[in-house]
């Protein structure tokens, strides 16, 4: 197969099986790079924690991009919220949305929390293959959301019959989902730059979508099927 000439693991000192095992575990569970290195050492594989960091930076965002094509459609009930992520001592904002079933719609890391950032997030979410123009958009009391929705309706970017609901308790489902991201970030001991944060967060969200059962024909609890699926995404044998 011609595509195999450009395998993403070419030149690595470890097999694709080892790299993808480490990638899956780091992105799915609250674990540090040093703890993951110790787990691999217990299996007879000596890997430095800095090497694991480089693997995540090289492949996490690619995983997220490739998973997108295989996601089940989300519902038209969006629950949108933002949470705080610290990057090199500075607070930034992670916009996230799930549907009424808790399925991940999309996410966006932003340096600002304003109308322009809200619009960027909505545009990114609407561009995904697994999303639909929402019937309802549930948000908190952030005044940027009504302005963003009104502007996008006027521009024809958002369905004009979409209903905006500013109701905090209806957003419990997305606020609970934030906790998973926070646990993963804490274990990683923070981020040194915006780009490293963006790549790592993309991997966290991709693995969450897989484990939520959002991928067609892959069970959320079937770790063997998930491993095989991820291996196929990278054109390698599990």
TrEMBL record:
InterPro entries linked: DDE_dom (IPR032874), Integrase_cat-core (IPR001584), IS_Transposase (IPR052183), RNaseH-like_sf (IPR012337), Transpos_IS6 (IPR047930)
Signal peptide limits: none
Keyword presence, DNA-binding: yes
Integrase catalytic domain sequence ranges: 69-202
Keyword DNA-binding set for record: yes
Domain of life: Bacteria
The protein's name in its UniProt record: IS6 family transposase
Taxonomic lineage from the root: Bacteria, Pseudomonadati, Pseudomonadota, Alphaproteobacteria, Acetobacterales
């Amino acid at each position: 197969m011609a595509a195999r000439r450009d395998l993403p693991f070419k030149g690595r000192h470890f097999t694709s099986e080892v790299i993808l095992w480490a990638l899956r575990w780091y992105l799915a569970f609250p674990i540090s790079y040093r703890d993951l290195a110790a787990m691999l050492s217990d299996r007879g594989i000596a890997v430095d924690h800095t090497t694991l960091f480089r693997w995540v930076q090289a492949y996490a965002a690619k995983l997220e991009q490739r998973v997108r094509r295989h996601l089940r459609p989300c519902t038209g009930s969006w629950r949108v919220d933002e949470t705080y992520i610290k990057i090199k001592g500075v607070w930034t904002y992670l916009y996230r949305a799930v549907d009424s079933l808790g399925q991940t719609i999309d996410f966006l890391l932003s340096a600002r929390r304003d109308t322009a950032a809200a619009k960027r997030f909505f545009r990114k979410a609407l561009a995904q293959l697994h999303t639909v123009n929402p019937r309802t958009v549930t948000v908190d009391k952030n005044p940027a959301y009504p302005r963003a929705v009104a502007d996008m309706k006027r521009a024809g970017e958002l369905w004009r019959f979409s209903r905006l609901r500013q109701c905090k308790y209806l957003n419990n489902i997305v606020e609970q989902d934030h906790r998973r991201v926070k646990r993963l970030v804490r274990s990683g001991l923070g981020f040194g730059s915006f780009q490293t944060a963006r790549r790592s967060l993309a991997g966290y969200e991709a693995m969450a979508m897989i484990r939520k059962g959002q991928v067609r024909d892959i069970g959320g609890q079937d770790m063997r099927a998930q491993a095989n699926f991820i291996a196929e995404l990278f054109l390698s044998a599990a």
